[in-house]
Amino acid sequence: MKNVILFEDDIRESFLPLSFTRPIADFRIGILTISEKWERWLNCNVSYITQDQLSKKFPIHITEDNYVINSSILPNRKLVHLIEGLSLNEAFLYNDQLVAVRLDERQFEKLVNEEPIDELKGTDLSGEDYINQISKPWHLFQKNGNQIKSDIKLLSSGRNSAEISSTNTIIGNKNDIFLEPGAKVEASILNTCNGPIYIGNNAEVMEGSMIRGPFAMCEHAVVKMGAKIYEGSTFGPYCKIGGEVNNSIFFAYSNKAHDGFIGNSVIGEWCNIGADTNNSNLKNNYAEVKLWDYRTQRFQKTGSQFCGLIMGDHSKVGINVMFNTGTVVGCNTNIFGAGFPRNFIPSFSWGGAASYKTYNIDKAFEVAEAVMKRRNKVLTEEDRKILIHVYNQTAPFRSWEKE
Prior knowledge:
- The structure is a single chain.
- By secondary structure, the chain is an alpha/beta fold.
- The protein folds into two domains: 3-134, Spore Coat Polysaccharide Biosynthesis Protein SpsA, Chain A (Alpha-Beta Complex), CATH 3.90.550.10; 139-402, UDP N-Acetylglucosamine Acyltransferase, domain 1, CATH 2.160.10.10.
- Helix 1 (34-42) links the parallel strand 1 and strand 2 (45-49).
């Protein structure tokens, strides 16, 4: 079995706050995380080159023969075929970025230490249309629909879907709906005209829901009664989603259980969005949306009219909160109250449009422990250390602490 190591470079900073608590390889896009995609495509186990504070939770495994792959690159049949054909000390490059390289242990240590690698043969793939890379947070939801289509082919190959109940109304091809064992869908409208629909193990779509593909929900996820789900959306494991959602990704263990709109957004893990909370995904003047970039520490043009909410792990939102177009919310925030909160809310913020104070880290841990206990999960010591690092790293953005 191949030993695959997924690495990330400075592009990681552009994915904050999502990458505060996980490597890029652990991002969910389509149905699977990027690491899960590579594991299935290459029939391998993966490990990670990531930030020091994440390395204990996401460790590295080195052998005498290592395939080192850029975690911001999404796999497909053509690229996988090329990587499987790599010889030792052979690499693929794309626009001066390393895509993949095969190295022995000695050469790998040189790569990690940024030393010249002996007799490295490089092939430039620049201009090739099969290189599919994410480099900004909004790429996740923009590419999500096509990744659902790719992943459902990967997961369903050679397998039959569980039977779907006759209580449902199906628009399009019934064969484009794939149900894993234990999945339940009753009295709902499923439209596959624009793409397939995937329902994971023991997931449930409650009655009265309307879903347009491409759409995916992972194991034990729940779509609540009467939900309206538009194409290009993914609900990760154990998410509970209601109301209206368009072209958005919820990584895992996050809830938006009530009415309200979330569109063109990416929501991390262990988040909760209160009833009738909405985000804008289109400016009133139809102008290009700007989004906060941690790397440049300024708002950056997205090149798109549609961009909603990017939210880091463990953030909570009260009822009736209104998020402006292109809002970035950090980790462990607690947001509530009337009015529009600012477009950039630092990690460990407590408050809303009126004012903010710092969310006490011990209180934040208490909430995280209580939330995770409900799902039989534990806030580990590694998790605490990661969040403490986020708390310290993001202090300069909490401007009120300087007053």
